[in-house]
Amino acid sequence: MNNPQSNKRRVLIIEENSRVPTDVRVWYEATTLRDNGWEVTVICPASSADYEANRRSLRNVEPVDLEGISVYSFPLRKAKEGVLGFLEEYITAFISMGRLSWRVWRKKRFDILHICNPPDMFFPMALFYRLLGVGVIFDHHDLFPEFISHRYKGWTGKILYVIARVMEYLTYKSTHLTITVNQSYGRMATSRGDVSPENLFIVRNGPKAKDFSPVEPIPELKKRFPIMVSYLGVMGYGDGIPEMIDSIRYVVTELGRRDILFTLIGDGAKRAEAMQKIHEWGLDEYVEMPGMVRDRLVIRQYLSTSDICLSPEPLTPLNAHSTFIKVGEYMAMGKPIVAYDLDETRWTAGDAAIYVEPGNIQEFGRAIASLADQPDERSRMSDIGLKRISATLSWEHQEVTFLQAYEKLTSRVSK
Fold first, then answer.
1. pTM above the 0.85 mark?
2. CB of 209 within 8 A of CB of 287?
3. CA–CA separation, 292 vs 264, rounded Å?
4. Which of 174, 71, 158, 181 is nearest to 121 (CA)?
């Protein structure tokens, strides 16, 4: 091991596209390791507010202790449009994270480097620390090549897709083992990354049952509407936000449903566009958009007050294989779901959701209206979701496999 002066094992977790504790999966992983005797350090972006307020000081930031986990933040301005914007984001992030990882190494050498995608850009760092005797885990969150192919079209998109596939392959090959979120991603790892089954661990995006459970509803959140329909999550490219707003318009104007309040919780590149459309279409009375809510208790209050929850992700090369954290969280709150019919969404939710043909915004709207009129059906679906979470999908079940992956790797690098 790299720290003979201490019996405590150390891990460095790095992620570029989110931060703890907002990224629930990474936070669960970090706290699970902490609770099992690991000394955990995380490198992640600073919040937007911290970036604007402390742009210069963040370059020399000291770690913050967050519930016993050391967190280093670096300044990151998210790219909004264009290839050059993304290149600038990723290159500057890689440099910042590389510097911080070396600072951590010099201060207290770590046994495991845990890299999270997207993007798949950390293979040089993985190879470097492998040379120093560190075990490296690839925590595969998203299919980055599929994201690229959806985002960019034409020859530019084709070239970038090939580059992304090469980066993905190099990431698989530069790490000792892979943790991924579902069977679809697992098949990608074995077929595209040549990952052997014994080095592949499926750890799903399940909520912690003991921390993320229903609370008392807050009637005031409904604003006197009989029915409250909620969305929780990122409002970025590929999340189905424009299509969801179209469905809401259909429900209110075409179906004439004035008894439903839509509460859309989250932030991202598509939020401003959604707000503009809501205002232009005269839907302000029927749609609440409180922005990003980081307080987990407040999130639970919103979801516990809701009658129906939405998973509007369209069929894309990325979404077709992805597991969405929001689906498990809806189920943990005992809420029925309206979703587009995607394989992994169906696997996760089972009969706790109504499934709609992808892209059919009218059918999506009709499913919402129909479920709003069926309290008994909502109750039945609620029970199904709660039982699935309790029986197999909660983090308490997933962390068993997660810890097995760590035990296997620590055994290997300690020899």
1. yes
2. no
3. 9
4. 174
Which residue has tokens 């199904």?
384
Provide Rg for the chain, Cα atoms.
Answer: 22
- Our separate counts of H helices and E strands in the chain read 15, 14
CB 218 within 8 A of CB 295: no
Q: How far apart are CA 8 and CA 21, in angstroms?
A: 23
Domain edges within the chain: 10-205+395-413, 219-393
Strand partners, 104: none
Mean pLDDT calculated for residue range 337-354: 96
d(CA 85, CA 336) in angstroms, rounded, equals 39
Q: Which residues pair with 353 in a beta bridge?
A: 337
Same fold, 10-205+395-413 and 219-393: yes
Q: Is there a contact between 326 and 336 (Cβ–Cβ < 8 Å)? A: no
CB 156 within 8 A of CB 82: no
Amino acid at site 22: T
Query: 168 and 189 in contact (C-beta within 8 Å)?
Result: no
- Distance (Å, rounded) from C-alpha 187 to C-alpha 51? 38
Domain 219-393, CATH among 2.40.50.100, 3.90.550.10, 3.40.50.2000, 3.10.310.10: 3.40.50.2000
**End-to-end Cα, the chain, rounded Å:** 8
Q: Which of 309, 342, 301, 350 is nearest to 326 (CA)?
A: 309
For the segment(s) 10-205+395-413, the CATH number from 3.50.50.60, 3.40.50.2000, 1.10.630.10, 3.40.50.1980 is: 3.40.50.2000
Evaluate if residue 375 carries a pLDDT over 70: yes
Token pair belonging to 307: 């009658």
- Which residues fall within 8 angstroms of residue 84, CB to CB, at 6 or more apart? none
pLDDT tens-digit map of 110-155:
999 999 999 999 999 999 999 999 999 999 999 999 988 888 888 8
Cβ-in-10-Å burial (0-12, 13-18, 19+) of 146 comes to buried
